[in-house]
Specification:
heterodimer; A: 318 residues; alpha/beta; Metallo-beta-lactamase, Chain A; 7-stranded mixed sheet; 5-stranded mixed sheet; 20% strand; globular; B: 257 residues; mainly beta; Immunoglobulin-like; 9-stranded mixed sheet; 3-stranded antiparallel sheet; 3 helices
């Protein structure tokens, strides 16, 4: 009898402990604080870090525009919990419903908050949707490994609505959707002609070394040249602080151009990958956040292709 | 005077602790697997010492466990006969073994890792002693139990064993050969995909005289790239590579300049 009571008590204790853990996970607070950068326009600036258990994946910038036709959200963040907290942050500012959630590209920190929003509001470029379907699951698993508890309950959700480039009027805001590529196969840029805000997604990094797991360095630089021409007043990068000039565009482009030159030269000089990793990073980039880690990752991701070109037989044909 | 005496004392101390540590078998990488490695890789009677002259270069953190770059350089040692590269915590510990019979005792390659592990090179010199160097590589891993990209694509079947290569003059003298071989290299640890890997590669000069023999094991990365340096005395107009995988598929190519 007493032993039965003991085991019952133990079970209750375990149950309570389980719930405490679940609630603790659910309670993790990203401390999202929207900053107003233009009329109707707010940005939530993430940390210039790598994914970690400490930041819960909040290394990304998300944004929203409160239009007369509802709220337009630009990127949903790295987890279900982030998406839910983003929704609450929006609700503190406006009682208008979220009518459109745009995923700028298929990297996990830009779409894993999708679960928090109504499925019919989600939209992205066709190749982004395809990327979420094919890689979303492994990205999500990887995020659990990198950010732990913060990811509790997160599942990848792909938008159904496919976007095409061109004008998109959302109430009193005249948006221009640009379908570019280079950071990934499909990089959506949103230019709000009504406020002059350019939401550049991860084509633009500011003060942080760019990530390149799906990069095409040539296409990316061409996309940046196009963005530099846009008549914007404010640029919201995918990572790093908001700016009012082309400096982040030029900085990102300079890094990519250096990376491309450096890797090509290294391959032409016959360097082994370990020797490429040991090459010095020029002084102008030393100040970028996580520059050493991103350089290391970029060499791993990109050098084999340069190497292959330098070794291929076609190269020696006249 | 006092300074030099101090220096001598200091040197004596460093040397004696160095030897003592080696004899005790204290692993500078402090791997719990070292005792097993000692037993498994070397005869009980062999003299095995940890030696900084054996340089193993690899990134401290490797994001892509399928393709971790490693360079081994034992050129600070004299009379190198063979080099065995192994990773303590890999499910298949042995990575590659090479005999630099004319080339420099160094090799660049890439490997698959299953988890964070020391990556070591054990170098046997002419007197039979083994010199061990190494470095830790941190990785989320999984590289050994994933199927190769090639196993899911028909391309490698058409191009299996294809070699692309290039030779560079080195500013230190001599030449550098880099070569890439199309091969899926499956470890046999991914469900339903048998082990399939490069087992034997001979690098020779244009007269067929041996420069390096490479014995590969399962953890070498897919479509492997090797970097080999040849001293000026052994540089020739062209080189040859020949060998086979564990299924008997032949590899043969001339490495032209």
């Amino acid at each position: 009898m007493s032993s039965l009571r003991r085991s019952t008590r133990a079970l209750i204790a375990l149950f309570a402990l389980g719930w405490t853990l679940v609630l603790a996970a659910a309670d993790r607070d990203y401390g999202l604080a929207p900053v107003r950068i233009a009329d109707d326009t707010w940005v939530l600036v993430g940390r210039s870090e790598d994914f970690s258990f400490a930041n819960g994946g909040n290394i990304v910038n998300t944004a929203f525009i409160v239009t007369s036709a509802g709220v337009v959200v630009i990127d949903s963040g790295p987890s279900r919990s982030y998406g839910e907290q983003l929704k609450r942050a929006i609700a503190r500012i406006t009682d208008r419903p979220v009518s459109l959630v745009l995923n700028t590209h298929h990297h996990p920190d830009h779409f894993l908050g999708n679960q928090a929003f109504a499925i019919e509001t989600l939209a992205a470029l066709p190749a982004t949707i395809k990327g979420i379907h094919s890689e979303g699951g492994s990205f999500n698993e990887n995020m659990y490994r990198l950010a732990g508890d913060w990811m509790a309950g997160t599942e990848p959700v792909a938008p159904a609505r496919q976007l095409a480039p061109g004008p998109l009027t959302m109430g009193n805001h005249r948006l221009e959707l640009m379908a570019l590529d280079g950071h990934t196969d499909a990089d959506l840029v949103i230019f709000d002609r009504s406020t002059g805000v350019l939401f550049a997604g991860d084509l633009v990094f500011n003060g942080r070394a760019p990530t390149t797991p799906h990069a095409n360095l040539q296409a990316w630089q061409a996309a940046l040249d196009q963005l530099a021409e846009a008549p914007f007043a404010t640029v919201v990068p995918g990572h790093g602080p908001v700016a009012t000039d082309t400096a982040p565009i030029r900085q990102t482009r300079a890094w990519l151009a250096w990376l491309d030159r450096n890797l090509r030269q290294a391959a032409e000089d016959g360097l082994d990958m370990t020797e490429v990793l040991a090459l010095p990073i020029p002084a102008e980039f030393r100040g970028l956040a996580v520059v050493d880690a991103e350089y290391r990752r970029s060499v791993g991701q990109l050098y084999p292709a340069y190497e292959q070109r330098a070794l291929s037989a076609e190269r020696r044909k006249p | 005077m006092i300074k030099s005496a101090l220096l001598a004392m200091l040197l004596a101390c460093t040397c004696s602790t160095g030897v003592a540590a080696a004899e005790r078998g204290a692993d500078p990488l402090e791997s719990p697997r070292w005792a097993d490695m000692r037993k498994e890789m070397f005869p009980a009677s062999a003299r095995v010492v940890f030696d900084d002259k054996v340089k193993v270069t690899a990134p401290l953190t490797a994001e892509n466990a399928m393709n971790v770059p490693v360079s081994v350089d034992a050129s600070a040692l004299q009379d190198v006969r063979e080099v065995l590269v192994f990773a303590d915590f890999n499910p298949i510990v042995r990575v590659v073994r090479f005999e630099p019979t004319g080339a420099q005792p160094s090799l660049g390659f890439r490997i698959k890792l299953q988890q964070s592990t020391p990556v070591r090179a054990a170098v046997r010199t002419g007197n039979g002693n083994w010199h061990v160097g190494g470095t830790w590589v941190n990785t989320a891993g999984g590289g050994c139990t994933l199927p190769s990209t090639g196993s899911a694509s028909p391309e490698w079947q058409k191009r299996l064993g294809e070699v692309s290569s290039r030779v560079w003059p080195r500013k230190e003298g001599g030449e550098r050969i880099r070569l890439r071989i199309i091969h899926p290299i499956d470890t046999g640890l991914a469900a339903g995909i048998p082990a399939f890997f490069l087992q034997d590669l001979q690098l020779t000069d244009d007269k067929g005289k041996a420069l390096m023999h490479i014995e590969g094991f399962e953890p070498i990365a897919e479509n492997p790239v090797f970097t080999v340096d040849v001293p000026a005395a052994r540089a020739t107009a062209a080189y040859r590579v020949s060998g086979r995988d564990n299924n008997g598929n032949a590899i043969a190519a001339v490495i032209e300049k």
